[in-house]
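S.,

Sequence below, as promised.
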Amino acid sequence: MRRENAIRLDMALGGSTNTTLHIPAIAHAAEVDITIADFDRLSREPPQLCSLRPGGEQMMEDLEFAGGVPSVLKNLATLLKKECLTVAGRTLEDVFQSAPTGDTNVIRPLDNPISREGGIAVLEGTLALDGAVVKQGAVAPSMLQFTGTARVFDADLPVRKIDLLVDESEMKKRQADWKRPKCKFRRGWLARYERLVTSAAQGAVLEPPEY
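The prediction came back faster than expected:
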C-alpha cells in the first residue's frame, strides 16, 4: 500500500518523528487508518540505509548527489509495493527502475545497513500510556537502554518500553491530580491549532470541538 511505502522510505532515511504527526493527519483527512503502531511495526522491517542530519552524518544535499530518493527506493525494492501509482501517474517501480544504485557511502544497500531496524521506535509504558516516539537512529548504542536519575524513568528501546519508576499508588495519585495545561496562544493560527489538534499519539489531526 502507498502509505506503507511512505513509512518504509522514512524508516530507511533515518526516521523523522514529524512523519508520525503528518502522515496520520493526511491519512485521517483521506479517511485512511494509520496509527503510530504502524510506524513501529514497519520500522522493524526495513533497515536504516541513510545517516542524515540532524541525527546523522550527511546533509540532505549529500543524499541528492548520491542518487536521491529514487536510489533509496531502488535499494528498498524488495520491501515495497512497487505497483502502486504515484502522484506522477506512474508506478513506483517506474520511478526508481532507471535510478542509479547510488553512492554506498551515503545510501547503503540492504545487506550492509547502518542499522537493522528503521529510524523510529515507539515505546509504551507508564510514562507514555499512548506511546512515545523516539528517533532511534539518532540514539547512541550506549543509551538504547537507560535508567534516569534526575528525571526518574527507565527506558529500553529494543523492547519498546518507557516506565516511570514510581509505585502504583503514586502513579494513580499523579494521574488524578493532572490538569490539562492552559492554551499558550490566544489569537491567530497557533491558537486555533492548539484548540483543535489531537494528541500526538493520533498524529497532528485537527478535530472540531463537540457542541
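Helices lie at 2-13, 19-29, 36-43, 60-66, 68-75, 92-96, 168-177, 188-196.

Coffee later?
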